[in-house]
Structures are given as C-alpha cells and as structure tokens.
Amino acid sequence: MSIHSPPALACRDVTVRYGDVTALSDVSVAFEPGLIHAVVGQNGAGKTTFARVASGLVQPTNGAVEIAGQVIRTGHVRESRAAGVELVHQSFALPPSFTVAEAMEFGAPGRGRLYSRKGLAEKWRAHLAGLDIQVDFSKRIRDLPVETQQSIEIARALITDARVLILDEPTAVLSPVGIEMLFARVRRLKQRGVTVILILHKIREVLGIADTITVLRGGRRVEGPVLAADISADHLATLIVGDAVKGHKPGDRDALVGNGGAHADVPSGHQRYASLAPALVLSAVSTVPDSEGAPLDKVSLSIRPGEIVGIAGVEGNGQKTLVRAIADLAGLSAGTIALGGEDITRKSLAARRAAGLRIIPFERNIEGLSLTSSLWENWSARELLQGPLLRLVNPARIRALCDGSLKKWGVHYHTSSQRAGSLSGGNAQKVILAREIDDDAKLIIAAQPTRGLDIGATAFVWESLRAARDKGAAILLISSDLDELFDISDRVVVMLSGRVAGAFAAPYDIQSVGAAMTGAGAAATGTQR
Amino acid sequence: MNDVIIAILRSGTPLVYVTLAGVIAQRAGVWNLGLEGLMIIGACATILGIMLTQSYAAAIVIAIAMCVIASVLSWFVIEKLKANPIIAGLGLTGLGIGGTALAVESIFGSQATVTAPFGAPKLGAAFGAYGVLSIFVAAMPFVVFALWLLLKRSRFGLQLSASGEHPFAARGVGIQPVRMRLIALSIGGILCAIGGAELATGSLQFFAQGMTAGRGFMAFAAVIFGAAHPIGATAAALFFAIAGALGIRAQLMFGDKVPHDLLQALPYLATVFGVWLSGKLGGAKTAGSFGELKDQ
C-alpha cells in the first residue's frame, strides 16, 4: 500500500455526548488501508461508541467521518455501508428466529425480489462457501453455537464487499481455540484487501493479531495508531489502565488488561477451612431440558468453605442452568444438592437462601436489581423476603441501615431513595455486593460479576470476593474471561454441553483449559471427564 | 350444509381481515390492541360514507382514510410520544367505540342504529347459493396469499420481522424500525377498514353502536394463536368463526336443553382455548416481549 493512498477510515474531532455523559471527546484517528488495526481500552473507554459512529449507528455531537477519502454523512447506517464500512456487534445482532439464509438476505443492499426458501439458500451458498463457513441454511440463528453465530454475522457484514470491517469485542464469547480460528479468518480477510478494525481489551490478543494499535481511555485517544512492533506490552498496559489500579496486586493488573501468561500463585485462604465439610456438593445432578439453555448432565461439583471455584466454558454450555439448579429455578431429573452438609434438593429458593445461599446474578439490571425501585428497597430485598408476608417494615430504620451498608461498600450515590437505574454499572454492582455478601453467606454464586465494569470496579469486585472467601464463604465464580478466572480462582472447572469437561488447579495452562472448553483433547491433557 | 359454510364465511371474513392487520403489526413489534377500535371506525365510516355520498366505492375510500388516520395516530403516540403500545392500543379501541357512538348521535340524534340504503356489492347469481356473499369474501383468500408473499417471501417481510424481533439488528443494517412500524400500521389500517366494512355491509347494511362486540380482540387472539403467521392466524380466525357458527347451530338444535347464553359464549371460549393452546405449543414465542420495544 502506498503511503499516499487516503486512509480507509478517518475520524476528525469526533465527540459524542449522551446527556451529561461524554462518551467520546475530540477523537481524531486515521486507519491505513489493508492492515489489521486494534482499538483497545477498558470498559467505558468509548470503544463501542467509536465503532458505532464509524458505522453510522450513532450520530456524533460533532466531528466528521471520512471513508476512503470521502466525507460521509454521519449517523446514517446506509451511507456508511454504501461507502464500505460494516460493523459486527459485540452481542450479535441477528434476529434469533431467522434462518441462516434469511439472516443473509434481510440486510442485503438493493431491492429484493420475492424468494423461495430454496432460492434464498442457493443465493447465499457461494458467499458462505467463499468464507469457509459450513452451515445448514435452514437452521435458525438461535439454535447455532456462538462461534457459528459470529461467523454468520461476519458473513452478513461481508455481503456488500465491505472494505472496512469493524469487529466489536469479537473475542469476548469465544474459547481460546475459537479466538485462533477467528484471527486466522481475519488474516485471510486482510489478504483479500479488507481493512479490519478490531475492538479489543486484552493485550495478549492485541499483540497477537494487530498491525497497529490505538488506545482509548475515558473517551479520549491516548495513543496511536502506532505500529504494534513499536510498543511494549507493559507500556500498553499503562496506557490502558491509567491510574485506575494503583495499589492493586500486580497479578490483578495483568489479568485486568489480559496480559497474563503465568499467573502469580493465588494466596490460598482455604487451608484454614480445609477440615470443614464442603459448603456445596452437587452429586450427579441432571436437569430437565427446558427452553432456557443446555441442561446439566450428571454434574458433580464440590466447593469447600474458603475456596473460590471458577467455572470456565464457552457461553451457553450449561453455566446458566448450573446457577438455576442451585437456586431451585430448574427442574432436577437426577442427583442431589447439599448446602453446608444439608440436603437441599427439595428445598425452595427461600429456604436455600436462609441456609446461606447468595447470588450475584448474570443480568445485573434485570435479575440483580429493580432499576425503577429505590436503593434501599433493592438493598433490603434479601432480608425482607425472608420474613413473614405481613410483617410490618420500618422504612426509616431500613434506610438508615442501608445508608450504613452502602457507605461501607463505597457506593457513590446521593440518597438511598434514588432509583437503582440511576447508578453506573460499577456502583450498581456494589449495591448487589452489599446485599449478597454478608456474614451468614455460606455459598456466594458470582455470575459474570465484572461484565461491563471498568477496571477500577472490576478490581473492587475481585477484592470483595477474595475478602468473602477469606472469611470462610465458598464462592462459585462463573466467567467467560479466562484471565479473571485464573487470577482469583483456587480451582477452575470447565463446562461443556452441560457436563464437567475438566478440572484444573493453579498455575493454570491456558492451552489445556482452552482445549477442554472446546472438547478437543480433553483426554490428551490428562484431566478427568 | 351450504348455509353453514355461508354463515362461517360471513362471520369469519371480517375477522380474517382484522386478524391480518394484527399479524402485520405484531411482526413489526406492536401488540395491536387497537384492532377493535379500528374495526368499528371502519364499520361506522362505511355506513356514514354511503349515506353521505350514495356511492359504495367512495364510502370504502372514506373508511380506509379514517382507519389509516387512526392508525397513524396510534403510531405517533407509540413512537413519538413513547407510550406503551398496549395502553395506546386500548386507548385507540376506546376512541373507536366512543367516537363512533358520538358521531352517530351528533349526526342522527339518539339513534342506536343507522341503516344504509344499500350494502357491499354481492357476488351475484353466477355463484349460486354463494352469490349472497360480498366481494370481500371472494377477495379474502387472495389478500391472505398476498400478505403471505409480502411477509414470508419478500425482503420487506424480513425487514419488518427484524424490526419487530430485534430492532437493534434492523438499525444495524440501515433499516429504520420506526418507519417500518408506520408502514405496518398503515397497511393494518386499510385491512381493518375492509374488515369493518364487511361487518357492517357484507350481509347487513347498518351500523349499530358497539357492533364489533369484541371481534377485534378475538382477531388479536387469532394473531397470538397463529403465532403471527399470516396463514396460521387466518386459520385461527376461521376456527373461531366455525366455533361461532356451530354455537348458533347448537342454539337452534339444543336451545331448550342447554342455556343459550352458554352456547353464545362458544366462540369466546374457543378464543381462550386457542390462546392457551398457543402458549402450550410455544407459538406465541415469536411474538417477542410484552409490548416493550426493546432497543440497544
């Protein structure tokens, strides 16, 4: 590529404000054609907003976007697509009930004719074959594994012969093997002349694939694009993190930016409690298949007090069902569950909670909090639900208790009667921690507890879980972020298709954990199945 | 036998048209509970149009115009004023029932029914016993087929479904879900006008206050029962019509033994059964979340 050809994509002084929040401020950046560019930064740095401005989904408050030297009208997806920019979203954006062929067709440019199902499959067969994607065209999107969904989404983005392909956090849902396959695909696209912009937040991945690196922090461009060869992992980590985690453990810092390799040994708090009976024992638990996810298949799992057990696995392999089974929200077809030595298989969720079960749920804003209710109502829910239905409550007393607790947990808020929905993600999660982590907690389930949080809040959640562990609680951590799991888990268990596909102890080997996640060579790594 | 089929087609045709309006709205992501209101506006406007212009064609045009205006109004309330679609739909129903009663009273004084000098054009003697049916009955299968092509075999249909099921995905490829819903509700307005016209002038030729008697809600139930599929929902609407016709039959035959109120309730019981069944079979799943237009 000649140095004089215009940039494939350029932004000039782009600012995006949502009300009082400035998501991007004065970002100017130009990407050379034909290369793989990485845009990195922590959650909340403005990466996704940047991608959406470039693709026309978000209208910037001011600033201009140029594609291959042409200034385009901002805020118009059709214009951006016509100019050759396509975006693949973080949480995939294909209607779940569509078949593969329909998913290709619905966003195709030009005017569509009436089609037959067969004709539609014929029409797109060559396109998918050209991208090495083998899939049954009559399958619905919701029935496909996440890797395939992502491939379909990439194929959908390439129907227009895109010259710039932006992938927003494409690795977040993939196993290490899936990431390698994705990167191989990205390199093939580069050979075809496509400029690829990858939005990433893990340094290891960035250095493995990118030609140039651009760093965003707090909505500003702090570096780049610089050639990947010219920047060290350490410097990159400093650029991404800023001052956010001064004073935290060095192992945490590496895990936060995905710069892990060999992890520092986890300080084991569980020795003290090793003689106690297990806090949670699942014996050959199977669940009744339902519409909400892969059923469990003879899952056995035991967690001692003072131990953090991490659950690894590609999303949709039974992690949600595992939580539902422990919370009495999924029907068991076989097996028993014991909490603190007591068989709770037939007990209700309320009884289980009374026995010390605590849950930090997957969906912070749906299951975790009632966004339209006040903070004190959210905070007091756990205790109030334990009491009798007609018990009188004293709001003034609860509010005072709530204030004390929220202050202790460092929640930034104005008044305990403000709505939970008015808090930032990190503060909202702290409210849930304040409710769920108490002295009576025997088993704390932390399901994706740091998803979407910035680095400071993530480190806080980790510290809180460790502190609870050191006080003798058993912790079941479910995460799709292997760096997180490796950093704070005493053991890691891999789930695949509703089964336990492997168990690992620190120090962890990302290769063998990754292999277990995809079912490749579980035997080769010598782990039990 | 012929008279049973004729009875089913007479009561079923208005229901099918209104059901199709519900299907297209549902696929665009709007739980349209305003069908009842639109249908009665269509019925009233047709009769008043005939009285005013003495022309059936002009009356239909007036009815369509009124229903489309009312539909666009509900679109405005939902999309621009951000009202909950279910509440907006119920409001539209209230507007239709109350507004038509008010219109009739203010024009004709305190008359409960308004009779027009003539009704919809009939098929004629060439169709034998079926000649008494209106042209809308004959057109109905073609309209169903056309809508099936539009919704299930065209890119427009895919874009409409995407707008309803996953608005963010639709926006991501440059579709404007808000505009798709305007189109969907406008087409629905046309279909409701025809449904109302068939109800008031297909075999009758008068308008009575509250004459839709819950048919709009039954149509909505057919949409859910039929999982918002144009043919499935049509079948559901016809199933309700058959239940109704059998109810009338049963009244004639066993009226002295079974309380006839119970037999009259048959189509409504069938509706409840149908919705229960669709929930059981998971048919309503495609319909998306409860009246919320989710976007990212």
UniProtKB/TrEMBL annotation, chain A:
Residues 9-243, 280-522 form the ABC transporter domain. InterPro entries: AAA+_ATPase, ABC_carbohydrate_import_ATPase, ABC_transporter-like_ATP-bd, ABC_transporter-like_CS, P-loop_NTPase. The keyword Ribonucleoprotein does not apply. Keywords: ATP-binding, Nucleotide-binding. Gene3D superfamilies: P-loop containing nucleotide triphosphate hydrolases. Pfam families: ABC_tran. The keyword DNA repair does not apply. Belongs to the ABC transporter superfamily. PANTHER family: CARBOHYDRATE TRANSPORT ATP-BINDING PROTEIN MG119-RELATED (PTHR43790), GUANOSINE IMPORT ATP-BINDING PROTEIN NUPO (PTHR43790:SF4). This is ABC transporter ATP-binding protein.
Automatic annotation (TrEMBL), chain B:
It is a multi-pass membrane protein. Its main location: membrane. GO terms for cellular component: plasma membrane. The keyword Hydrolase does not apply. It comes from the Bacteria. Keywords: Cell membrane, Membrane, Transmembrane, Transmembrane helix. One of its GO terms (molecular function) is transmembrane transporter activity. InterPro entries: ABC_transp_permease. The chain crosses the membrane at residues 6-25, 30-50, 56-78, 85-108, 128-151, 182-207, 219-248. It is found in: Cell membrane. Pfam families: BPD_transp_2. PANTHER family: GUANOSINE ABC TRANSPORTER PERMEASE PROTEIN NUPQ (PTHR43370:SF1), SUGAR ABC TRANSPORTER INTEGRAL MEMBRANE PROTEIN-RELATED (PTHR43370). This is ABC transporter permease. It comes from Metarhizobium album. The lineage of its organism: Bacteria, Pseudomonadati, Pseudomonadota, Alphaproteobacteria, Hyphomicrobiales.
